[in-house]
Amino acid sequence: MKTCYIHSVVSISAQDSFSENDTIFEVREYSDYKISAVHPPYRDFIPLSQLRRMSPAVKMGVAASKKALEKGNVEQPDAIITGSGLGCMADTETFLNTLLENDEQFSTPTAFIQSTHNTVAGQIALGLKCKAYNTTYAHGSVSFESALVDAQLQIEAGEAKNILVGGVDELGTEFMDYVHLVEQKQMQPIQVSLSEGATFCVLSSEKKEGAVAVLKAVEIRSKIAEENIITEMHDFLKTNKVKPSEIDAVVLGNNGDAFDVYYENLQQQLFPETDCLQYKKYVGEFFTASGFAFWMGAQLIEGYTLPKNFFIRKAESKPYKTVLLYNQFKGSQHSFVLLTQC
Amino acid sequence: MNALKQELKENIIEQLNLEEFTVEDIDNDDALFGDGLGLDSIDALELIVMLDKDYGIKLTDPEKSKEIFQSINVLAEYITEHRTK
After folding, report:
1. Are strands A249-252 and A322-329 parallel, antiparallel or unpaired?
2. Which of A108, A114, A119 should be substituted to probe chain B, the one whose Cβ sees the most B Cβ atoms within 10 Å?
3. What is the pLDDT of residues B17-61, one digit of tens each?
4. How far does CA B33 lie from the centroid of its chain?
5. Chain A interface includes B46 (CB < 8 A)
6. Domain map (residue ranges) of chain B
7. What CATH topology corresponds to B2-82?
């Protein structure tokens, strides 16, 4: 496959990942069952006249994409590809609640037109006046990775040189309360907060000055039996000509539920001495939370020091040249992402 | 009439998410569209639904809505004359 260079990665999360410093120095600790992202002053990125109609997902997406394009030195991308598990939940709730309250009468347009999964990619394109390829993937916890796969294919086919890729999900108003209630009925529920966030990056077929890392491989598997995760990961690495011992860090999507056993098995059996990191304890669980892992991976390869709280296991300080990201949700929708130094 | 104008301003700010405005910022003669409050065509649809829902006024002629939505004064006058609830 053609090399896919990462020119910037920007993330809005429940941590200060969108700060001026471009990294996190102090970790915010949370105990609530749902937590909001640390929202930046959006008026710095979006005209007030547009801001008033935007839900948090759109605001996060537009602000993160603007910064990602700016950092990647790209004015007009050749494609905009996003992923979102739940789309614009806040406006979906508004629209449906209004229908119920008014007996399906007096439906207004704003919430409806802003409630779809592709609202974010659409608003980014409108803001940029970009009429290029524009697609959104709604595929649960592999929504962001699906967008990455599409971007890789676009670059491989020579359809696009510079691609804006992102993943975004928002809490909404009430929906997550019901998710929490259902989750609490599980034998071993998710132990981290439910949350929201947006990660955007610029991928390119050309290596330019300031390139952050290389997106070496992305793979999505719908189902993997618990006992097969080691073999599957081994095969993924072998396909990409990387030995487990060559992985400098593994970023895992632990959320405390019964399915964390997938992460534990990998950590203990395949990567017994490799640096292992987690993030959902600090940025919460949402369908595109793995975008934050992508940001962490890029940070490690760029040479930033992540706070020690993120490390499950850390060996001596060393440069991170190859980073593996692994995520799954309830034992399904597994994603393997391999990042390497340029 | 003054109570109605106050009510209209509050509803417009809330329903159109005019976060930067307070009731005091909107003069009764300010243009709602264009250079005044800067409302647009999507806001016009929201206002048409608001007239139907809150005052029982059904607007079907787009030209008519242009006249009615000139300002709070004009809108309040029209509602007073035509409201059914």
Report:
1. parallel
2. A108
3. 888 889 999 999 999 998 778 898 889 989 999 999 999 999 888
4. 10
5. yes
6. 2-82
7. 1.10.1200
